[in-house]
Write a structure and sequence with these properties.
The complex is a heterodimer of chains A (157) and B (285).
Chain A: H1 2-17, H2 47-56, H3 59-81, H4 86-106, H5 111-122, H6 126-137
Helix pairs in contact in A: 2-3, 3-4, 3-5, 3-6
Chain B: H1 2-19, E1 36-42, H2 49-67, H3 72-75, E2 78-84, H4 89-103, H5 107-112, H6 117-120, H7 123-134, H8 141-155, E3 162-167, H9 171-184, E4 194-199, E5 211-213, H10 219-227, H11 255-258, H12 264-280
Helix pairs in contact in B: 4-7, 7-10, 8-9
Classes of the chains: A mainly alpha (157), B alpha/beta (285).
Chain lengths: 157, 285
């Protein structure tokens, strides 16, 4: 009889602990961040990056900077997504160079600070960082031309 | 009236700065017959392709800012800026993994402080960087070959351009090796057709009796000098620049930092002007 009671208690505890209703103890598991992340409006810029750019460089007062940073963010996003493909990686490196030339034209005094801050946010996971570096491995500088400074402003989209 | 003009001038200056007026082309580049000089930037370790593009851009911007005050011989040339990339993705990858796994540094912090003192002073990180910066056997022969070919192409007909190389950090090792390759294999270009102005160099020489600038506050090169005492001594500094207190530049090694702080910026641009003046006297082909 004692064995039966102990068995029932054990079974009850076991079933309770396996019913999946443990929300009061721990949060549901978080899905790992993908390289692409979330781009709800489909404009090519990750949502969290869009929020950062718009909050830091509002279109109303710093429209040129806002657009230049979006141009780079868009190019960096496709760079990471296509990182395993050699030919697109070369094309995307050229797109990033044009975006950086635009940024240098818009912010000649502090472009590097803006770039470092934006890139740190773009590459906020190991997967994104590795994808960015993987894409670079497909490119040699000879594949990507530099435009002279007097043409940089013309690279702004 | 005078006050109104002054106010108008100030407003105009502010407006121009805000609107970032388009950068004017070099006067000599308007003349197709003007002699050409190609200015190569060669990047060092921990430099991604994007960083290299921005470093070359900073070099061009600072050069253009000073060009009108440079010697007539320099102003008579059209300077074309180019990049001889030294791929360092593997090292950056190793650096990132070490920072994450052993120091628990997030990717965001890593990218923010890639050239900062907080990372450079970590023994683990310094060890990862010092190997490629001190061991000549670890520099890539195919990259040296590719760089040498690029210099030869610039000098040879039909380009007939003089070449100035501005390498940063480990790029100095590649530049010395590529220079030696160009001049030690026939056909050798005219003597003096290539000049080097090194920045933050871990090397013990500059090929071709070139110039260099290393800062007293360069944490990485100072650490390398402890291992290899023959490393060229410091001969410039960043003054009391606030950059040295910022997470991004506090390692004192950033190329952008060298070209933003003074007197290092003035020293480097003076070396460039002197080298370009010497190059102007050379007929490349």
């Amino acid at each position: 009889m004692i064995v039966v009671v102990v068995g029932m208690i054990w079974l009850a505890v076991g079933l309770t602990s396996c019913n999946g209703d443990d929300s009061s103890d721990s949060p549901p598991p978080v899905a790992p961040e993908t390289v692409a992340g979330i781009d709800a409006n489909g404009d090519g810029v990750r949502d969290d990056i869009e929020v950062y750019i718009d909050a830091t460089y509002p279109v109303s007062t710093e429209g040129d900077t806002n657009r230049a940073l979006r141009q780079f963010a868009r190019a960096a996003q496709v760079t990471m997504i296509d990182a395993s493909e050699p030919a697109p990686s070369v094309a995307h490196a050229a797109e990033r160079f044009r975006a950086l030339e635009c940024l240098m034209a818009r912010r000649p005094g502090d472009f590097h600070v803006l770039f470092v801050e934006l890139r740190a946010r773009l590459l906020d996971t190991a997967g994104r960082s590795l994808a960015y570096l993987q894409a670079d491995n497909h490119v040699r500088a000879g594949n990507v031309q530099l435009l002279p400074a007097d043409q940089w402003v013309g690279t702004c989209l | 009236m005078g006050l109104a003009l002054t106010v108008a001038w100030v407003v105009a200056v502010l407006f121009v700065d805000r609107a970032h007026a388009q950068i004017a082309p070099q006067p000599a580049c308007q003349n197709v017959m003007a002699p050409r000089t190609t200015v190569f930037f060669v990047n060092g370790i921990t430099t991604t392709l994007d960083d290299a593009r921005l470093n070359a851009g900073k070099l061009e911007l600072e050069f253009l800012n000073r060009l009108s005050a440079m010697s007539p011989a320099v102003q008579a040339n059209c300077h074309v800026f180019s990049l001889n990339y030294n791929p360092t993705g593997g090292e950056v990858n190793d650096f990132l993994e070490a920072a994450q796994q052993q120091l628990d540094i997030t990717p965001t912090r890593f990218w923010s402080e890639l050239e900062g003192q907080s990372l450079f002073t970590q023994e683990l990180i310094r060890a990862a960087l010092e190997g490629p910066m001190t061991d000549l056997n670890r520099i890539d022969a195919s990259t040296i070959e590719r760089h040498a070919v690029a210099y030869r192409e610039q000098i040879a007909s039909p380009s007939c351009r003089r070449v100035l190389i501005v390498p940063h950090s480990q790029g100095n090792l590649y530049t010395n090796a590529a220079y030696d390759l160009v001049f030690n294999q026939p056909p050798s270009p005219p003597p003096g057709a290539i000049k080097i102005v090194g920045v933050a160099t871990p090397a013990q020489t500059v090929s071709g009796n070139g110039r260099y600038r290393t800062s007293t506050t360069d944490v990485l090169i100072n650490a390398i000098r402890l291992i290899r005492p023959g490393t060229l001594p410091p001969n410039t500094n960043w003054g009391i620049s606030p950059l040295l207190l910022s997470p991004t530049y506090s390692g004192g090694h950033s190329f952008i930092g060298y070209l933003s702080a003074d007197p290092s910026r003035t020293h480097i641009l003076s070396d460039i002007e002197s080298s370009l003046t010497e190059l102007a006297a050379v007929n490349p082909c």
